[in-house]
């Protein structure tokens, strides 16, 4: 058997390893010279030098925003925020020839023409800046004093399209070597600039001082928060900073006053450093959470929980943790016809909705609204053997795309994007896109641009066709073809990101003769998706990506093992579905665990309290559609372990969602014409809270899809 995962790796990921090995070899050298005689090449914490031991300098305050502490600098006393450069350069008075500067800051939104200084290095009684960094709302400037000609002059290196003034934390790494200047923001793709004037090989810092957030005057003083300012001589700090997942707050060295646990004074119980934060706590019923309430707290007395508003939703900070206890039926929801899939989504100020992809035309598919703890019919939408829905937004626009499997009454094959009309309070047809037996849509954003990818299952009897990725054109307000990717009877797209990288996985199901084929993972590089890794699958119907802590997993639902050129197995449908984990060292997904499934069509990951779960949609075991679907609980070292069995009939899809009434799962069935909801109950340390599992009865066509091998199977893949 072929070993999955043999595709070549992407160049930027391999570059991480090269840089790590290069950096560990001693850093930059140039013309046989090093700077080691000036320092021991350790990180030089500029910010810590400016903070006196045991206290803060005048003009400094410690504030906490978005969970991190930073220094706020006063504009009234710029000279108080300074210290002699000799405190850092203890062996000589020259600035390093090659170095990195690491900055973590939170910049406020400022007027378009406002420039603010992050730091400067200036000689006493001289207005010139030896070394400095300043930013505008959309660019960053690095300044240095060049002395290659008599008298010297100020040089400036500008990095355009650097957006820092968004009131969020960002980490910058500036690497300097001769004529080359490289800026990395939040460990994204570096911005490289090569200039004519190199950084000086011997820049004297005699009688010079560092100034934090200013250039020795009040104009241009930094108004945000500064958390980290480090000079690393002789090395590119990017590999040292970009090794985790939380890139925006990567830390090389921060002052003790800004670390997570403030030091307490010996003499009393007060904090050693002045520490301030704007904290407001609301009691009573669930309040609104918007930009105006951002950083405010709400205490829920009934659940004994403390929540923080992040500007849109309440995040749990402290609460009694529930645990999944048992499951029971919650609601029976009659649908227009058998349902192939379901999409749960929220519309601002209107609440929760569910769209069902129904087989029959008419009456088409339907949208339901969550009302008084249950779904109530809201709108019918004409579709043609709909397979799935995808909800997404672009700015303030709200869209819902349906994947139609069959032709319309005129013999035309289109999938349709619907747009929410605020005036009519319903979805209206917006754009038709030509598709071929479409199975699934996936919406995603890369570098601020919106994309929509469709899975084309087959064209006639040909399953080996192109699926298409569309890019949103803001000028025309329409999606336009951006890229085609060859697929084989594909069923599903799954988009995900890891750090600054974007990935798209396709579930290839059937190539015309076999379900034993490779599914592929693509990575976004240089404006298009390129092959990253191939994994052997067996009638793959779904990919599900999820995170547990810092670990990244990818689960595939294998539906059927069939190959016209090989002996038939004893059971086509009892087959392992697999969970893969990202191996950062190998830079690929490797198999983590196999789970026995029965014609699995979907995975859904969800959490209850601190527990993580996977639920599988088992549809057919080779004899009957009445097959239990299984909820697996994450058990750490043991992986996922079966925790609950749910009686389902031809289960096709699972959706997890949360409401004010609790947490829910919605399942769709392939055999029954109505929903079969379940109610799940939670066990807590002090209270018992209900969590409900709802179910739909969906998808008549899957009955023929998974019945038997041979001609019935071929009809199914069609």
TrEMBL record:
It is found in: Cell projection, Stereocilium. Residues 1-25 form the signal peptide. Pfam families: EPTP. GO terms for cellular component: stereocilium. Its main location: other. GO terms for biological process: signal transduction. Keywords: Repeat, Signal. Transmembrane segments: none annotated. The keyword Amino-acid biosynthesis does not apply. Residues 59-235 form the Thrombospondin-like N-terminal domain. Coiled coil: none annotated. The keyword Repeat applies. PROSITE patterns: EAR (PS50912). SUPFAM superfamilies: Concanavalin A-like lectins/glucanases. This is Thrombospondin type laminin G domain and EAR repeats.
């Amino acid at each position: 058997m072929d070993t999955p995962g043999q595709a070549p790796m992407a160049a930027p990921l391999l570059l991480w390893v090269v840089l790590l090995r290069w950096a560990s070899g001693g850093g930059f050298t140039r013309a046989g010279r090093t700077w080691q005689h000036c320092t021991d090449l350790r990180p030089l914490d500029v910010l810590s030098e400016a903070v006196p031991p045991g206290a803060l300098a005048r003009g400094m305050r410690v504030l906490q925003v978005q969970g991190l502490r930073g220094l706020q600098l006063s504009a009234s006393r710029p000279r108080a925020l300074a210290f002699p450069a000799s405190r850092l350069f203890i062996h000589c008075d020259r600035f390093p020839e090659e170095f990195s500067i690491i900055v973590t800051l939170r910049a406020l939104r400022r007027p378009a023409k406002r420039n603010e200084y992050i730091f400067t290095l200036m000689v006493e009684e001289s207005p010139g800046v030896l070394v400095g960094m300043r930013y505008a709302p959309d660019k960053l400037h690095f300044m240095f004093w060049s002395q290659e000609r008599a008298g010297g002059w100020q040089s400036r290196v500008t990095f355009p399209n650097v957006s820092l003034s968004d009131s969020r934390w960002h980490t910058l790494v500036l690497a300097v070597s001769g004529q080359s200047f490289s800026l990395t923001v939040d460990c994204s793709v570096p911005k490289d600039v090569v200039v004519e004037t190199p950084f000086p090989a011997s820049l004297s810092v005699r009688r010079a001082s560092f100034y934090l957030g200013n250039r020795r005057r009040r104009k241009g003083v930094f108004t945000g928060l500064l958390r980290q300012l480090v000079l690393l001589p002789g090395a590119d700090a990017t590999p040292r900073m970009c090794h985790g997942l939380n890139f925006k707050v990567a830390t090389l060295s921060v002052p003790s006053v800004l670390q997570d646990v403030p030091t307490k004074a010996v003499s009393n119980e007060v904090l050693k450093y002045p520490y301030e934060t704007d904290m407001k706590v609301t009691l009573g019923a669930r309040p609104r959470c918007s930009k105006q309430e951002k950083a405010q707290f709400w205490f829920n007395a009934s659940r004994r929980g403390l929540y923080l508003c992040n500007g849109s939703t309440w995040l749990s900070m402290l609460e009694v943790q529930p645990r999944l206890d048992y499951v029971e039926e919650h609601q029976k929801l009659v649908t227009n016809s058998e349902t192939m899939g379901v999409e749960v989504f929220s519309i601002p100020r209107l609440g929760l909705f569910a769209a069902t992809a129904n087989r029959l035309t008419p009456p088409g598919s339907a949208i339901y609204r969550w009302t008084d703890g249950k779904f109530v019919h809201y709108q019918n939408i004409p579709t043609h053997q709909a397979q799935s829905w995808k909800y997404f937004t672009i700015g303030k626009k709200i869209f819902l795309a349906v994947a139609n499997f069959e032709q319309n009454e005129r013999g035309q094959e289109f999938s349709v994007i619907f747009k929410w009309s605020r005036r009519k309070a319903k979805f209206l047809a917006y754009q038709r896109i030509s598709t071929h037996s479409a199975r699934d849509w996936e919406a995603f954003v890369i570098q601020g641009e919106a994309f929509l990818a469709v899975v084309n299952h087959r064209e006639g009897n040909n399953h080996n066709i192109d699926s298409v990725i569309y890019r949103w054109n803001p000028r025309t307000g329409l999606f336009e073809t951006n890229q085609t990717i060859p697929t084989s009877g594909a069923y599903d797209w799954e988009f995900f990101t890891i750090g600054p990288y974007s990935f798209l996985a396709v579930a290839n199901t059937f190539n015309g003769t076999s379900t034993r084929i490779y599914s592929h993972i693509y990575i976004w590089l240089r404006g298009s998706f390129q092959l990253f890794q191939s994994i052997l699958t067996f009638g793959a119907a779904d990919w599900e990506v999820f995170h547990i802590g810092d670990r990244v997993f990818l689960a595939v639902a294998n539906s059927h093992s069939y190959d016209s050129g090989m002996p038939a197995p004893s059971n086509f449908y009892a087959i392992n579905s697999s969970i893969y984990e990202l191996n950062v060292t190998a830079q690929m997904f490797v198999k983590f665990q196999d789970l026995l499934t029965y014609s699995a069509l979907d995975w859904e990951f969800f959490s209850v309290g601190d527990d993580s779960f996977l639920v599988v949609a088992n549809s057919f075991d080779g004899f009957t559609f009445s097959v239990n679907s299984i909820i697996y609980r994450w058990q750490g070292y043991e992986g996922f372990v079966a925790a609950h069995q749910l009686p389902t009939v031809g289960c096709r899809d699972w959706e997890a969602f949360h409401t004010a009434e609790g947490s829910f799962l919605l399942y769709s069935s392939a055999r029954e014409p109505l929903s079969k909801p379940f109610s799940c109950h939670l066990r807590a340390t002090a209270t018992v809270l209900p969590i409900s599992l709802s179910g739909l009865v969906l998808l008549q066509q899957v009955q023929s899809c998974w019945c038997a091998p041979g001609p019935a199977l071929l009809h199914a893949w069609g």
